[in-house]
Amino acid sequence: MNVLDIIKPENQVFCKSKLMTDATLSYCPGCGHGTAHNLTMEVVDEMGISENTIGVAPVGCSVLAYDFMNIDITQAAHGRAPAVATAIARTWPEKYVFTYQGDGDLAAIGTAETIHACNRGENIVIIFVNNGIYGMTGGQMAPTTLEGMRSSTSPYGREIKSMGSPLKMTELVANLPGVYYVTRQSVHTHKHARKAKKAIKKAFENTRLKKGLSFVEIVSNCNSGWKMTPNESNIWMEENMFPYFPLGDIKVNGILK
Amino acid sequence: MSELKLMKGNEALAEAAIRAGVDAYFGYPITPQSEVIEYLMTERPEQRTGMVVLQAESEIAAINMVYGAASTGKKVMTSSSSPGISLKLEGISYLAGAELPAVIVNVVRGGPGLGTIQPSQADYFQSVKGGGHGDYKLYVLAPASVQEMSDFVENAFDIAFKYRAPVLILSDGLIGQMMEKVNLKGQQKRLTDEEVIKRHDSWAVTGKTNRERNIITSLDLQSEKMEARVRRLMKKYEQMEKEDLRYEEFQTEDAEYLFVAYGSSARIAQKAVQLARAKGIKAGLLRPITLFPYPKKVLFDLADQVKGILSVELNAGQMVEDVRLSVEHKVPVEHFGRTGGIIHTPEEVLEALEQKIIN
Description:
The structure holds two protein chains of two kinds.
Chain A: H1 3-6, H2 33-46, E1 53-57, H3 65-68, E2 72-75, H4 81-91, E3 96-102, H5 103-109, H6 111-120, E4 125-130, E5 133-134, E6 140-141, H7 160-163, H8 169-174, E7 179-186, H9 190-208, E8 213-219, H10 223-226, H11 230-244, E9 248-252, E10 255-256
Parallel strand pairs in A: 1-2, 1-3, 3-4, 4-8, 7-8
Antiparallel strand pairs in A: 5-6, 7-9, 9-10
Helix pairs in contact in A: 2-9, 5-6
Chain B: E1 3-8, H1 9-19, E2 24-27, H2 35-43, H3 45-48, E3 52-55, H4 59-71, E4 76-80, H5 82-97, E5 102-108, H6 124-128, E6 139-141, H7 146-163, E7 166-172, H8 173-177, E8 179-184, H9 193-200, E9 215-216, H10 223-243, E10 247-250, E11 257-260, H11 263-278, E12 283-288, E13 290-292, H12 296-302, E14 308-312, H13 319-327, E15 333-336, H14 346-358
């Protein structure tokens, strides 16, 4: 059989979402951000809610999310996306409001905004891409950097005694009553991407049903920051990130698993 | 229907916000302005007009909530006092950079640091010289009465939406806490979501319909684009100077000596003018109502008429620099003011005029 016989629309499982623009992604080849963007836009498209969706972009690698997602987006100050989203959801209760944030944004500078938006049970979706490093500023230590992991500000590896333990923000917010759905996913294989999309869809469905806050962590790679090839970084992620940040649902329908 | 009431400045401002059809208020308690959010919470504006009121986890969160709602074209405001405004400055710089309409109220207390909870005007520099990072200015309104605490809310929103820019109401603990009679305006209807979309569809993020997507950001990684943004801002400020300068003159027609004062200090200086005239000293008062734009030209011209100018401020000498810049060394300009929360008396102000300028 010729390979061209297989490449047909009906056989296509993954493609670029109609809600992604034609702008060239600013992400490094091999980075998970592009897939996470695409899955989010696929969900918005499939639910038919693009006219009522407002995104909040962070500061960090995904600051330019508005260049790639063809929806209305406001770009927040570093870490403040959950506060920005809170106000939009409060003043436009019928809209779908989501934040898209990295680990430095959400789990360091924006910790207070994250915890309190979660605690108030704001009717929003938080998509949290955790790659254990500050990518945009050039590979500095993040709150989620693993023990012993090297970065430009932990050049000899993260030392717990002086730098603290990697922060499990997702487990933390799962304990707050206002949070309805908490899950941790990844997007590095087709199988994982499919599961992640299902989780993102569930999160947006929760907004539709006005269930409160849905929190989707996506453990991702940063091959540039980790100084690895894309493939090496995915293997390293499976072997090192997943044991500390295990994949799966943590809280479903308001009930801790 | 207007209504005459006896109210605190902070309460009058809060009531005016409801009546002006404001969509949302986000705040955090701090003395001496906590009455604003207390009054709003007590009044249940969500029932009166559908206005959203939320106590945020910090001043930082509150100003970023303002940024969020302003991004969507809603009429939104926050209030705080000096240390809290310092925390909000990052967000205020973002509002200016992203060209968003919003109203921020500062009921000033003494500083620096935790300072004091007593009235002060020591945030003049912070208000008119930028405060936050980058090339931007705020349109700054300085109320001198409880009536103006009420009236300036609507004025501030008119300017904020005219220019798509943040506006600061620079009050102080004296104006915020004192009670005066106030004529409250009738209730304005809040815009419906459809009206907001219709009015602001060219820029606000309300959901992408059959138009290009709207993006709110202050980021331009290309230097030429960023410079164009800064130039656009500067153009707005030039237009503000031409069209929206506000000031008030009191007995300046024949004045030989001039007080320049704003807000609570202007009230005290007005009394000092009367005391001076009773003693045969022809004093007058120029009261800038907007601190940016500043009445530079008015001062420049008055400097041809008077023999000396005293800038009266509840601080260690801040606005006096702008007075000096405006008069270009034509006449002596001195500063008088108490700090630490002490409010100068009209007698002290007159004595300062006699000692620093006349003698």
